[in-house]
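User: Here's a chain of 257 residues. Predict its fold as tokens.
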Amino acid sequence: MNLKKIVGSGVVFFLLLLIIANIPGIAFSTVSPNNLFTLLAYYITQSGGPIGTTLWVFLACILYATYEDGWKNKVLVTLKAFIGLSIVIGAFAAINEKFTKPILKSERPSHALMLERLQATQQLDSLYALTKDERIAYFGKRINEQKNLFTNIDLQVLAHWIEEGGYSFPSGHSFNAFLLAMIFSFGLSQNRGSYLFRKHFYIPFLWAVAIAVSRVSLGAHHPADVVAGAAMGIGFGAILLYVDLTRHWITHKKEFE
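Assistant: Prediction complete.
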């Protein structure tokens, strides 16, 4: 499998995300209580959270190592890939939360909606003058006092809004999802035991698109946030798969098949 095809697939699904995320009416479309689509969107987005991402990283690394000969090599490559991916994702998350987002100061759509519902005198600018923990505490207290204003919002979604007290741009969920989709796609394409796996190497990108779209439909991000996160995920994924130093360190091979 030519790695250019994997990158090409990533670009195609990126363009699909670009279209879907900007469809009018997508934002806040899955926040209603007792709604199957709300439940589906919530658990899809959770699959790209800290716990879900850790599990997907491990599975992606197992798939990545399937083309290695011998179980010892498979285990070694799996562990190296897991460490490498964990470092990349952890570093991106730290840089994103500590530097990128605070510098760009993009507000979350959910924060704007909550302030509007609360009829708060506090504006977004003054809200973001607070620390992340202070914003979480502020929304938690005010919403608990006026739950009647949010009866048309699913309780899990509302709790998710409160927990996400940080800035919006770019989307970490989308970055993680598309980065992992690149690794998953490579692992499927190199699988020696199943032709179906190799044939359907693009399937992980469907999951990545679903993650990114769920962030918009749940009101957690603007379309631009998820598009930027997805683009960076594809870019970093391509670097990890293409750069010679990374390739040799992980696989001990001169070039991929």
